[in-house]
Fold each of these.
Amino acid sequence: MGLSATLPTAVATRGDYTTTRLDYVVDMIRKYGINWARKNSLWPMPFATACCGIEFMAVAASRYDLARFGSEACRFSPRQSDLLIVAGRVVMKMLPVLQRIYTQMAEPKWVISMGACASSGGVFDTYAVVQGIDQFLPVDVYLPGCPPRPETILEGIMAIQRIVAEDGVRSSRERGRGLRLVVQPAPVVTLGAGLREGSLAERACRPVLDREPAE
Amino acid sequence: MATADAIAALQARFPELHFTPLPLLRYPDGRDSGQYWLRVPAERLLEVARFARDDPRTRFEQLCDLAGVDYLNFPGARERFAVIYSLLSLTHNHRLWLKVFVNDPDPVVPSVTGIWRGAEWPEREVFDLFGIRFAGHPDLRRILCPEGITDHPLRKDYPLRGRGEREAFSVVTRETA
């Protein structure tokens, strides 16, 4: 008896591959099994260089209790974590270190840029401070605030969970290039008049300019 | 012993340098802060510093701090740079500040690491950020800025936003990581 007799029959044929019932089963396991497990057990690596790190500690402590979202196990080794939380300003001497830490993390991995400094340099518009880590590192979620409130951080973690649930088990290489805002705000968040969703995404993707272009 | 005795001892030992103690700070009502600094020429610095450390009337055993200043475009300044030595006598509990002024190009100050060993890293810091060389320093390398930077960022003619150092990195993308 050949191997083909044990496989499910084909349900659809597209071009050069055939989808079988086994593929559907595997997809379901991925979507509702692996993704579900993975999004509820994120292991953050806090890259805390400033006051945002203190606020993250508050989130991890009992009052805000990050353990409710399954990501209370902070690991300070990039090999053991899958969520990089860049909390605080990154100076030009630290950025190569941060990039190395990111490349050392195992796939799949996600990055949160926490606070004004990590996302844009914040008030530190000086020669030493990198004006937004997303120029040199792929970022999944930006957290606004100086520092962000614990509720904002929880929302950021939940946004990562939505990304995990939507993106599946694809590695970050397969998730594609760059600086996309890959998740929309939660439905309960109402944006103000000046913050329509399109303009929000545009601003998040706009490169940081050293000088504004002359009018 | 008060600071005045230490200044008097220095004046008696080095009459040719004409030490005039100037207050670090003068209040609006005319009083001063009681903390004084002396101007020392760079070529006599080691002599003065060694006397200040060893003489029983001065006994400045501790170099509290060593700082650089850039006086570019400062009103009334004649020299561009100053190196400031903040001295403390643990024996007599008095303090004194020495200022050494140097000028462009190639500002050089003798290193006091042979007198106060703790001056090694502050001198590296001043060298890193101001470009003032310290002759005789055992290991004059940059200490704060990354390797490969050629500028001295705390100089007043250095732009606040730098010359592109903060943008000069390779980009790590999802494909390359």
Amino acid sequence: MVCDLNVSSNTLMEQLRSGALTSEALVKESLAAIQTRDGEVGAFLSVQEEEALAQARDIDRRRAAGEAVGALAGLPVAVKDNINIEGRKTTCASKILEQFVAPYDATAIERLKQADGVLIGKTNMDEFAMGSSSEFSALGQTRNPHNLTRVPGGSSGGSTAAVAANMVPFALGSSTGGSIRQPAAFCGVVGLKPTYGRVSRYGLVAYGSSLDQIGPVAADVAGVARLYDVIAGPCHRDATSAQVEATPSLPELTQAISGLRIGLPKEFLGDAVQPEIQVALNRLVDLFRAAGATIVDVSLPHTEYAISAYYLIATAEAGSNLARFDGVRYGYRTAEDGNLRDMYVRSRSEGFGMEVKRRILLGTYCLSSGYYEGYYLQAQKVRTKIIEDFQKAFDQVDVLLAPTTPTTAFEAGAKLNDPMAMYLADIFTVTANLAGIPALSLPAGRDQAGLPIGLQMLGPHFSENRLLRAAYQAEQLLK
Amino acid sequence: MTAITHETVTHYAKLANLHFDESETALLAEQLGTILTHVEKIAELDLDDVPATSNVLARQPLFREDEVRPSLGSEKALANAPDTESHHFLVPKVINVK
């Protein structure tokens, strides 16, 4: 049969279970969609056609034989190219890792494989996940499937574009300051950044280690819940993995939360927000209120300091993490002759792109003697205040609702030469990363130019299941 | 406005094992100045008595027994290296260099 990737992953799963659809047919459809659309969208850096088909046929055979199959059995998944799949390249969209072949599976990938997700390819991103438009990739250009003159957002822009263009039902992204929610908003798909420590970082190339999380992307909330259930949970290989069992979110997803209390943080509203996004937010608030939810105005007073604290902490951690790329153990090495230090400097200067170098330089500066207290330490204190702000808000409400981004997808090239303007694209997303709380973006209509609008919901640590239920309710109300 | 000089860029580039040409240095001096001017906003908060965050989750760190477990092995660990020789990473000569 001809299958349609533009249906819910629930429907695809039912069709696979009933035998109305085979995984092979689904994977072929996915590959055909990539073939047709990816020339202009540029979501993928690599596609593993043969391996994906072989994996799909094996799953079909096992299912037909009545053998046990996993929770994702037969569904194609795209993976951001900073997550290791053993034997395949992990480039981080960087020249310095262009030839790097992952020697082991990330824990999230190990779990996807156990769940029989079909790994179809690796997606484009801003180099080392540093950017908000995917334009800082050294290996390819990704455009927004809804309008090819616009950026898909970043840094997980390849993953969100692949889902938005119906090339795959699922993708994995990663978020350090908004790199799942912001591109999900720009591309009109759902993306979840889980609680810090909820999904193992083992096998995710480190950028800002105290902020990084892997998270799911899908066309709808049910898809995100399905993928989240597979990858969440403790891992002994990641020392920052939270030792808290994750209970599956999918079984209770459709049960509306009675007496849901929703907080509207005033710092996320106002003149900086594109009017149509404000209208979309008001509409959802009205729908929730009519459905019986309580709406409460709340304040997160340190929000205005969040971008500053975020870029100080993230670049400091990046400067330290990226010191490992020196042309010795892996990655690009300069062809020039010279002593050891020349080799380090040339390999790094030739291998890293300008945005990565800019962040390493900033991180080195703010960690250096004489500046450490004023920059890095002060930023970590601001972080404490941001965490307290959220705790106070969650004493009053179950979830917070806010715009994901101040604007819809911007024009390609618009912020490329203005780093500070690019950094401000993350203004509404960085607080959740700084506080380590889970946050999800879901589509809520379009602006006058036809570009998707994203709204985000945020919850306390480890509240993913409730957050997903609230988001599912929002999705139903918006239909 | 925080002014960043060419010398400052060159100094921190050296600490970070990076090299920039003249025009990159000029551009970075300007951009870092702009970024630092923005992020210095956090200085206006009086946070002397506030503890710095070291972990976003108020939980005990994860401990485990210090025991030998399987790891990559030298073959896999060396597979991505630009230059190797008999189970070692090869780098330019570092002793008796003239």
Amino acid sequence: MSNILVIAEVRGGVVKRPSLETVTAALQLAAQTGGKVVVVACGSGLDAACAELRKTGAHKVVAVDGPAFANYSGDGYAKAVVEQFAANGAVAVLMAHTAMGKDLLPRVAALLDASVITDAVGLACEGGAFTAKKPVFAGKATMSARATKTPFCASVRPGTFAPACSPSDAEVSKAAAPAGDLLAVVKEIVASAGGKVPLQEAKVIVAGGRGLKEPQHFKLIEDLAAAFGPGVAAVGASRAVVDAGWRPHGEQVGQTGKVVSPPLYFAIGISGAIQHLAGMRTARTIVAINKDADAPIFKVADFGIVGDAFEVVPALTAAIADVMKGK
Amino acid sequence: MDIVVCIKRVPATDAAIKIAADGKSIDPAGVTFELNAYDEFALEQALRIKEQLNAGSVTVVTVGPKDCKKQLDDALARGADKAVLLSTTDWMYDGMQVASALAAWIKTVPCQLVLCGRQAVDSDNNQLPANLAGRLGFACVTEVGKLTLADGAFTAERDIEGAREVVACKTPAVISCQKGLNEPRYANLKGIMAAKKKPFVEQPAQLGARGMEIVALTLPAPRAAGKIVGNGADAVPALIAALRESKAL
């Protein structure tokens, strides 16, 4: 009863990167519990995914493979994971804190009546007790917590651990999907239009705020993002412009939007309200462009330009395009 | 359809967070509290479903200290029929405990739909809805941005990384609500007056054993102050040079 179960997220036959990162977290934890890492993947046609998961350093891979599991179902997958938990002598379950992880892991925790900590950025097992660190208040503070019972379930924030990679070959076994009706099941997946980079996966985020004055002026933001070349930069937005209906909520950065941590973040015409700073303050490099030299955003920015976005941004877009041409 | 809406009282999103002397909780001095922003979408959706069906009830419930009465009263003023306070003495951060207390109570009332915000903006757990659904044996869809009800079943749309999922969901169900689902209404004077006559029930939460305890709450290290590289478009070359020097480009 010391093994760590990892739920792998497989989409389109491919293991998602945050799941590989979670295997790394599980291997570190298993070294402390003296157990093994068992990876469970649910879906249909999982052979390629299993081949990938064998090369992670996990000790065992279980594929719950069947046509009933072709589309994601939180209740169906949870039942399968709980069966594997019992069959594999596990004490803890880990999964990445992705859209699927938020939907599935807590249900598994409920069925196991387990202690649960989500969005963890650190995990350990000390003296038989699981501990975790997680951001709270959108990162305005960090909570260190100790589980007071087992089983223990935790979701792991994407980007926190390196993806697992090991030449060792894990044992692979197959299991049938549990019988029974599915209560909620995905019937369609619609890809985002235009091959946009998801905000949380972007290497660069160019975010705009009310300083742009009109929704159509976000063209400046889109052009700067495009200057980095295809697949690099995403457009972000402040809460003010999302609430005003200028931009979709999916682009909102901050406490009631997304918490992001890209290598490079541009805040343009964004004053830097507390709830916005909470969502982007862990970006590696922050650039602020604002005409108000006293704007709070300059207190967290590494580099700032005081000036009118309508003059500065086109010049910056041209300069970035030049830099990218040279690469 | 009898609908339960789970809400939470949280520090306002514009609040600066300070740590209390115990090192494990926030210092409430100077912090205003509000209804969790995502719960407003849950309450609004409940009211719209009741209006669509022209039948059923909307009950708001929270697990927390007595101070939560203000947020429950606000929900009544916006149109909920009944409020329930499952009272505790502490800030509720243990997701397992909250889920089990809510599940224990929901099992005692008629309920075909539970609506929640996608997460509370204090503990940021994003785990209560699916945990509750598991304990109740209900269907569940989380972080829903579009919801339609027809013939007693839901079609729910939710954003995933780089795509949108369309989910077929039976009832009874737990649905967690994402921003963008609807435009919440606010209380008007008539609603505030009507709320005073609506049922308000307070009873102790059946919390059960703790699943976790807080060891410490800490503030992140402040970012080192940066520098203004210049003014206006003329400063762009200096910015590019600074970004290259710091290997950001």
